[in-house]
Amino acid sequence: MIPVSGILLSIILTTAYSIPVTKHESENMDLRMPDVKPQQPDTYLCYPMKMDGPATYITGFVPHANMSTAHHMLLYGCADPGQKNEPWNCGEMMDSEKKGSFKPGPICRSGSQIIYAWAMDAPQLTLPEDVGFKVGGKTTVQWLVLQVHYKDVSSFLPPNTNTDNSGITLVTTTKRMPKRAGVYLLGTGGELEPHSIVYMETACTITDDIEMHPFAFRTHAHTHGEVLSGYRIRNGHWTEIGKQTPKKPQMFYNTTHQDLVVKKGDILAARCTMNNDGNTTIPIGPTQHDEMCNFYMMYYVNGDKLSSDGYCFKAGPPNWSWDDFGASLHLESAPSDISKLSAVDNTQDGSTMEDFSGEQEMTSNLETISGLQHFLQESLDSEYGSEHSDPARVAGFTQRESEAWREYIRALLRLEAEQALDDLENAYDADGYVY
Predict the structure, then answer these.
(1) Which of 44, 55, 54, 49 is nearest to 30 (CA)?
(2) Residue 392's CB: how many other CB atoms inside 10 A?
(3) Among 204, 256, 290, 399, who pairs with 285 as Cys (CB 3.0-4.6 Å)?
(4) Do residues 243 and 225 touch, judged by C-beta distance below 8 A?
(5) Catalytic positions
(6) How far is CA 61 from CA 58, 73, 118, 132, 242, in A?
């Protein structure tokens, strides 16, 4: 046993000779819509936050939104925002709010860059260790601007009195991160001809003398998107950055190769494989009835210098394709599976920045599905009574893969069982039927 005198001496010495440590504040910052009431579908609203004080590093993003209301959210960094004190209409469809109270304006008046994107109930995102988005201080990002694209506004229209406060909680620190994060966005214009498989393609050469280390990617398309894929091309060799279907939660996933480096002279390329089986031409555009082809590459640099041009956009079909880029793209060396997903890629769910192989095995294993069904049955008996939980109904909607069952499995894999049951409850009417 250590004598009390020895403990006291140790405390005295530690106190007397300890080295002063600089304290770095960690803080959660909320950037959310201030109880707005958009009046037209496909309204885009923006809301700003001034980044006063020293440089701050964003290391995580916690979204607060529902895909039934919000089509997507984007977080921009601006030198000067479109407005400084109130929400404003910042979409390409500004005329849609003629009868509303929101003034029109751009997202940023200067210094625009994308920091984060969310859609389809994607979960929160935590950046790797020592990586952060640097904002405020002496950076060009003096303001953060939240943009929300409203898909359905019916809950805000009379006689309803609901308001919306969708947004993001930012996990931040003032501790200097040695690796500065950035986002590089590849996208296209163009249109989808009826009854056709369409390749929407873009490619650009990196001209900045920097080294980018991609660690996550995100895909975004609307209802016609099948597979979106991105590549780095160096000396004719194509290396996959990431590939995913936009039908899954549109979150940031781990890149295919975590040791990939993009530097000056490399080519970044992306393809959106679209399927238009309808009778009309679908243009690229801002509404949920149009299409989009966006591939986001999240990266870090060692130091402070990011890419000076964080965008690569081409005209898209029928005016532009990879054939128009030139010989340096080496299309003869392009992978044959650019528009295909492997069995692993094509699962119904995944988790941001994590290894979700266990979830993939879970959703594909028949014994596990049977176990989940049994758990579901017991939960229904408990919550609704046996008269409202006919096993035939449960088996029926499992077999036809109804959205209610898929959403339940997603919730069960990601959340606690209590939350999953709450989600399932929303899919049931008073008689226990799925609707």
Answers:
(1) 49
(2) 7
(3) 290
(4) no
(5) 71-72, 147, 149, 220, 222, 292
(6) 8, 12, 10, 11, 21
Which residue reads 């996933």 in tokens?
Answer: 253
Going by C-alpha positions, the residue among 155, 154, 136 that lies closest to residue 144 is 136
**Token pair listed for 307:** 């890419």
What is the Cα–Cα distance from 176 to 356, expressed in whole angstroms? 30
Instruction: Classify each residue of 349-371 as buried b or exposed e, where b means 16 or more C-beta atoms within 10 Å of its C-beta.
Output: bbbbbeebeebbebbeeeeeeee
Per residue, what are the HEC states of the chain? CCCHHHHHHHHHHHHHHCCCCCCCCEEEEEEECCCECCCCCCEEEEEEEECCCCCEEEEEEEEECCCCCEEEEEEEEECEECCCCCCEECCCCHHHHCCCCCCECCCEEECCEEEEEEECCCCCEECCCCEEEEECCCCCCCEEEEEEEECCCHHHCCCCCCCECCEEEEEEECCCCCEEEEEEEEEECCEECCCEEEEEEEEEECCCCCEEEEEEEEEECCCCEEEEEEEEEECCEEEEEEEECCCCCCCCEECCCCCCCEECCCEEEEEEEEEECCCCCEEECCCCCCECCEEEEEEEEEECCCCCCCEEEECCCCCCCHHHCCHHHCHHHCCCCCCCCCCCCCCCCCCCCCCCHHHHHHHHCHHHHHHHHHHHHHHHHHHHCHHHCCHHHHHHHHHCCCHHHHHHHHHHHHCCHHHHHHHHHCCECCCCCEC
Residues 243 and 340: their CA atoms lie apart, in Å, by: 9
pLDDT digits (tens, 9 = 90+) for 217-272: 999 998 999 999 999 999 999 999 999 999 888 889 999 999 999 999 999 999 99
Q: What is the pTM of this model?
A: 0.71
The C-alpha atoms of residue 111 and residue 140 are separated, in whole angstroms, by 7
Q: Say what the pLDDT of residue 211 is.
A: 97
CB 77 within 8 A of CB 115: yes
The token duo for 208 is: 């900045």
pLDDT tens digit sequence for 77-124:
999 999 998 999 998 544 444 445 789 999 999 999 999 999 888 889
What pLDDT, on the 0 to 100 scale, is given for residue 343?
55
Q: Is the dihedral of CA 406, 195, 188, 327 positive or negative?
A: positive
Q: Alpha-carbon distance 264 to 205, whole Å?
A: 8
pLDDT per residue over 136-176, tens digit each?
A: 999 999 999 999 999 889 999 999 989 999 999 999 999 99
